[in-house]
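Lecture 7 notes: from sequence to structure.
We start with the chain below.
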Amino acid sequence: MTTIAQAAFAHYREFPVPGGLADYFLCFWEQVITGSGEYVHRVLPDACVDIVFVNDAPPVVVGPWTDPLLVRFPAGTRVVGARLHPGRAPGILGIPAAELLNQSVSFSDARSASSARFRAAFELPGIVSRSAVSHSIVSQSVVSQSTLAAALAPAARLARPADAAILASIGWLVRHPDGSVAQLSRSVGISPRQLQRRFSAAVGYGPKMFQSVLRFQRLLNCARKATGPAPLADLAAMAGYADQAHMTREVQRFAGGTPRVVIPAAECTLKMSDLFKTDQPIPE
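Predicted structure tokens for the same chain:
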């Protein structure tokens, strides 16, 4: 009998974080690559910073991303991550998020003097294990989440408070997806120049880029909520693009592919946030 090898495939899941971490962390997640050969993962912008463990390697910090990026994983790879809420990473890491823009750096390089106090926690074994790929993925996930939560607990206790004006700005942009920076500036009571500087320090880039990234993630969210394949023009309107051509340009900009290629294969990574609570339901 001839056996045909299965191509590499990714199993991706998200998990809620314990209550003590929820102010800073949006979710835990894992991605397990099964099959054979190599899996090509498309990194898409979501305004978040992630602390990522790949197999047994030391953790890396993946900053807020805006450029198209493909990452290749061989079958048998297991990736575990902790995703920070937009605007919360500096409180945990002790450095401006703008310093991590389109960067993937080792956790030890990204840490500040304050985060060095909990560095040892991330050197504990057991957060990621290759055995999960060939044995019980579910049971190993429970172990990893527990270990990861324990490792992050000191970080949350030592974290600096987030910039309240920027958190308010993020909320305003969610409620006013077409609002201008001038309107936002008046709403939060700080000058446009100071708003740009503080927003970049907290999120990694300015409010206009955040609007574009949030709209892109809203597009992926709308596509997943649809009961069947939705026309691209309808998805563009639902997500808040001016028209389908505008959506196509933005998808190409962030993902390096066309909407017909990117949208069916990509998932929103902000599903566990409150950033889409104002979405309207998609008609059947």
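Points to note: Residues 1-5, 130-139, 279-284 have pLDDT under 50 and may be disordered. The beta strands are 9-15, 25-34, 38-43, 50-54, 60-62, 69-74, 78-84, 104-106.
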